[in-house]
Amino acid sequence: MTAAISLLIPCYNAARFLPRLMEGVRGQTIPFSAILCYDDGSTDDTVAVARSLDLDIVSGNPNRGVAHARNQLAARAVTEWIHFHDADDRIASNFVARLAPLCDDQHDVVSCDADWVSESDGGLQIAWRYNRDALALDPVAHLLAHPLSLNNSIIRRSFWASGGGCDESFVMWEDAELHFRLALAGARWQHVPEVLTWSLRNPKSFSHDYHKNCRSHLQFIEKHACDPRCARLRDRFARQAEGDAVALLNLNDFAGAAEAVRLARSLGLRPPSSRHPVWAILRPFVPDLTLLRLQSWLRRQRRP
Fold first, then answer.
1. Contact by Cβ (8 Å): 165, 71
2. pLDDT at position 286
3. Rounded to two decimals, what is the model's pTM?
């Protein structure tokens, strides 16, 4: 028997996107059992458009962010299995047919691959691919290296609730952080290595705010790097913190970069981690942040 799955759609100024998403939703070869939208204080006609599409929609005001919207949706879901999908993205017509049979007593999360594509020309920007065996055997380590969007997964609602849902302190990265936390809690994973969702990217997309994205990723590292359950991954966290420091330097956020450097050092890594002999000579005399700025500048000069 196919599992009953609720489709949960967080919406913010999504009036022009909902009809497109619903084409894919209503084209499912096996339908979702229920569909619910949450309007997070939109200033456009999102609510009216949703109702014109015969969608149930809950209105929230003021805008409190996508993590809050997701938690509100999960709290109102009526099935044991839930799938979140962003209003401005696309879904394969066989999404439910491919994943629902795996939503059983042996699993807590079922996921798939995804593509991020340009909304204007359909060009591939990022191919998000995950290793099925790695997710089954060690999802914590795999998800640290391969963040997973909620567009890509179906989650057992009772397991979601036991983990506290999305952390509403996150402006971005709330979905990757949620999956990582579920893995830490022992979620049993099953993965289908097929592209069944597409994230449509454009310069005005919320996720194109690279500064907020980088700051949120740093928040993720700060939250989890010192967890005893992540002790074996401290070096990976440290290197990611160093990467955030470089990115924040390039965004002229020197305070954020300094915070990232301090975090990397607290995890046992002294940036820059490059083994180039020049850094070894300069390290005793030059502050870490200055070295990173120099390294970043030199790398930019070498780019064509």
1. yes
2. 84
3. 0.94
Are 25 and 91 in contact by the 8 Å Cβ rule? The answer is yes
Choose the weakest-confidence range: 5-19, 53-67, 196-210, 222-236.
196-210
* Residue 123 in tokens: 């060009």
Phi, psi values for residue 19, rounded to 5°: -60, -40
Say which residues have a Cβ less than 8 Å from residue 207's Cβ, sequence separation at least 6: 172, 201, 213
Please check whether residue 37 is in contact with residue 50, taking contact to mean a CB–CB distance below 8 angstroms: yes
Under DSSP, is residue 10 helix (H, G, I), strand (E, B) or coil?
strand
- pLDDT tens string 14-24: 999 999 999 99
How many C-beta atoms lie closer than 10 Å to residue 54's C-beta?
Answer: 9
Domain range annotation of the chain: 5-205, 209-302
Which residues of 48-120 form beta strands (DSSP E)? 56-60, 81-84, 90-91, 109-118
Q: Taking every pair of C-alpha atoms in the chain, what is the biggest distance, in angstroms?
A: 67
CATH 3.90.550.10 fits 5-205, yes or no: yes
